[in-house]
Design a protein that fits this description.
alpha+beta, 475 residues, Outer membrane efflux proteins (OEP), 2 domains, disordered N terminus, 8 strands
């Protein structure tokens, strides 16, 4: 009898000393860094985030097109009965500038038998250099300038959107990785427990055959083994599900989905892995709150939206002004060769004009300006609400992390005590001072404590990731 009990005790101690992962080859470990590198390189959402930036740059280039120089040419000729009634030629380069100014230069020629006197110009044509200037409406802001300024802000806004997309993607991926690691560790806990239960069952059967144990003890041992086998199968199913979830984040360079092989395992999340993080103090909460309000992409997006709306407001204010545009062209027969060049050039060789218009009530302009002001007020309220939401999320996660640090340190000691009780009950069973029911009870408590410890480790890392997420620091 004692020979079988000693053999059983040795095997149980040997099994319980197994490392959670049986494999020792580091080549079949997919580390978190490798996992995230694959994700950021090949995942479609990561690529879509980059496309957002490119689209914004294309939009900016489109807005800049409003300031492209324009080359214009026109030729019109009439021949009738072999006579040249008229020939008109006009060519012009117009360069839009800031503040609504347009600078232009060109050449006009007109000849023929039937030319209206007002179109009569020197035979060799006339060159001109001119400027068009809005004096009232569109001088401080016009649509082209507004579109360009808003496009520049849109580039910055899409960069914030890209960061938010990556931030959420990385949080989902990291949480899936931790869930996979937790499932693998729990599976190995129950695999180890199943082996111990099987060894105990075989030893109990042999002791019964030798007449040292009652038949009911074999039933107790078998039921315990069956329960452990059930728990192991359930844990194995969770591992398969976790692998599929992680596989959803793995893609190849051709945007082809990849399936995680069964031979690949996650990093072991244990006390050593968490040591540096648990022993490092959390950053001051006030500093983190200030960081949210000054550097968070969501807050930056609202700030950029307010700047865009302010540009829109300035544009709408222009609609409350009358239109007064002035055009001045300096004329020259030939290629700027004046007959008598002197300081009277600007008064003797020019073409000048202006146009003026205004609505009598400005009803449309006032309504559009009021709409924009209301949008600004609404956006400011949304910004205040979003800041408060982020602050509350941060404070909640911060409180969870602070408590989890204490809970993990406390539960480590609790786990050690449960393991001591289980070991002690096994020793008492060896010398006949205990029974199989108490041994199983103590072991079940210790196994549940091991699982709880794994869950606490993963929960801490999960909240650590959430803290980075709420700060938008996932990179």
């Amino acid at each position: 009898m004692m020979r079988w009990i000693k053999l059983y005790s040795f095997l149980c101690l040997f099994c319980s000393s197994f490392v959670i992962y049986g494999q020792t080859d580091s080549t079949n470990i997919l580390t978190m860094a490798e996992y995230l590198s694959i994700l950021k390189t090949y995942h479609p959402v990561a690529k879509q985030a980059d496309i957002l930036t490119e689209q914004a740059k294309a939009n900016l280039q489109l807005a800049r097109g409003g300031f492209d120089p324009i080359l214009y040419s026109d030729y019109d000729r009439k021949e009738f009965y072999g006579k040249n009634y008229y020939s008109f030629f006009s060519s012009e380069i117009k360069i839009p500038a800031w503040y609504g100014i347009e600078v232009k230069t060109g050449y006009d020629a007109a000849y023929g038998l039937n030319i209206n006197p007002e179109n009569s110009i020197p035979e060799n044509g006339i060159y001109y250099l001119g400027i068009s200037l809005p004096v009232l409406k569109n001088m401080l802001m016009d649509k082209k300038r507004a579109d360009l300024l808003k496009a520049r802000l849109f580039v910055k806004s899409t960069e914030q959107e890209r960061l938010l997309l990556l931030n959420q993607l990385l949080l989902d991926a990291i949480q899936s990785y931790y869930y996979w690691s937790e499932a693998e560790q729990v599976k190995n806990v129950y695999d180890n427990a199943q082996r111990i239960a099987y060894i105990r069952y075989r030893a109990t059967v042999r002791a019964y055959e030798l007449g040292d144990r009652a038949a009911i003890d074999t039933t107790e041992a078998l039921a315990q083994y069956q329960q452990r086998a059930y728990q192991f199968n359930d844990a194995e199913l969770n591992v398969r599900k976790a692998r599929l979830i992680v596989s959803g984040f793995l893609w190849t360079e051709n945007t082809t989905p990849a399936l995680l092989p069964d031979s690949i395992f996650p990093q072991l999340i244990d006390s050593t892995f968490l040591h540096a993080s648990l022993n490092a103090p959390l950053e001051n909460l006030d500093i983190l709150l200030a960081q949210i309000n000054t550097a968070h992409p969501v807050i930056n997006q609202y700030e950029l939206k307010l700047r865009q709306l302010d540009i829109e407001r300035k544009l709408k204010k222009e609609n409350l002004k009358p239109v007064l545009n002035i055009n001045y062209n300096l004329l020259s027969p030939g290629f700027f060769n004046y007959t008598s060049p002197d300081n009277r050039v600007f008064t003797n060789y020019y073409k000048f004009g202006f146009n003026f218009s205004m609505p009598l009530t400005f009803a449309q302009g006032r309504a559009e300006l009021q709409q924009t002001r209301l949008k600004i007020t609404d956006t400011k309220l949304q910004l205040t609400q979003k800041q408060r939401e982020l602050e509350l999320k941060l404070m909640s996660i911060y409180a969870d992390l602070t408590t989890l640090k204490k809970q993990i340190l406390l539960y480590r000691e609790t786990l050690k005590n449960y393991e001591r009780l289980s070991f002690g009950e096994s020793r008492r069973f060896e010398i006949g001072e205990s029974n199989l029911f108490l041994v199983n009870t103590r072991e079940n408590t210790a196994i549940s404590a091991q699982q709880k410890m794994i869950e606490l480790h993963i929960k801490y890392l999960d909240y650590e990731a959430k803290l980075k997420w709420v700060l938008a620091l996932m990179r």
